[in-house]
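ARCHIVE RECORD
Type: protein–small molecule complex
Small molecule: 4'-deoxy-4'-aminopyridoxal-5'-phosphate
Source of inputs: curated submission
Record status: active
Notes field left blank by submitter.
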Amino acid sequence: MSLDAGCTRTARALRPFGTSVFARMSALANVHGAINLGQGFPDFDAPAFLRDKVNAALTGPTGQYVRSMGLPALTKAIAHQVAPRRGVIPDWEREIVVTCGATEGIAAAILGMVNPGDEVILFDPGYDSYAACVAMAGATAVRVRLDPVTFAIPWEQLERAFSARTRLIVLNSPHNPSGRVFDMDELSRIAALAIKHDTIVLSDEVYEHLTFGVEAPSIASLPGMLERTIVLSSLGKTYSCTGWKIGWAIAPPELASAVQSAHQFLTFCAPAPFQAAAAAVLHELMPGCSYLRDYVADYESRLDALADPLEAGGLEVRRPQGTYFMLLRTRHYRAGDEESTARWLVEHARVATIPLSPFCAPGSPEGGWIRLAFCKDPGALAEAAKRLVAARQD
Ligand code: PMP
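STRUCTURE (tokenized, with ligand):
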């Protein structure tokens, strides 16, 4: 279904957003029978050991509401699992809120913390739900454009973005769509600004374990930041089960309570059988364990299956430091801007990609990139690469 951006029945705050670029490109991919490297979900299933736990959970009494902040077994398992990355063990009762995916975590954090008239700093390009949630909260998004080509942070502009009304800054590392991992120096500078302006950081870390040759530090682990950071994670990203919609927010009690104040009215609780399954495996899946090593190696080989033939075919790509997205230059094709190039490629190369322009404020300068998701079958990735090279026009 396509959403009419002008429909007066839709709340005014949501009208500018219309139908997301992911839904639009997927619909176009279906029309043209294209290989869909657009929407970022794996085309393979969650690992069998995790699915077995759901089946086991369903044989027990998991059909009713559970504790709103999360099944105790799961919040205890999360506390244990995140301790090495976080530097301390969070309080399983007061510092963790299990949400319906990180998507709900974003909404609950923003709606639970932000007042009408407040300002929220967002980086462009950025995940599309941040701006929509800021609009739903009646607040103003103050957007800071990363360098269109390198995705470096423009520090002077970021400093200027803070005001007396700044309530929150949203950070995402590893970063969708650029694949950048913000390093310690960058995180320290952001932390210093957040402390100086007494601002809370919403740190979307859903790709925290999916990095290639680098670690993705959490801004929460920096001095003075634990007490002012809400960290968001997603079971869907780490265990390839995006449809199960299990995520969590970790924050000090005061901030977790703000997230919970919205979560209780958004969904009340996340699906019980999937929480039970996650609880049964998470305690075994510590950072550095064989599952996570294999998971990264598997994605690395999928990245190579796509990036190697594109590079061999003379196309300029940007390999990610993290996430399951890579970027491809639009200048190899003659369709024009990013959106036109993505559309042209669906029609002429039968490969669906995502332009970066919808991740930015309207009218923002384009870097000339499209995003390719490589969380897909290696055969499909190799075929997509062949088509993208064959369609080259420069
Ligand atoms: N944040 C980012 C940066 C994402 O890329 C996504 C998923 N595409 C989400 C949040 C949403 O995560 P979930 O599937 O757990 O709702």
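CURATOR ANNOTATION: The longest strand covers residues 166-172.
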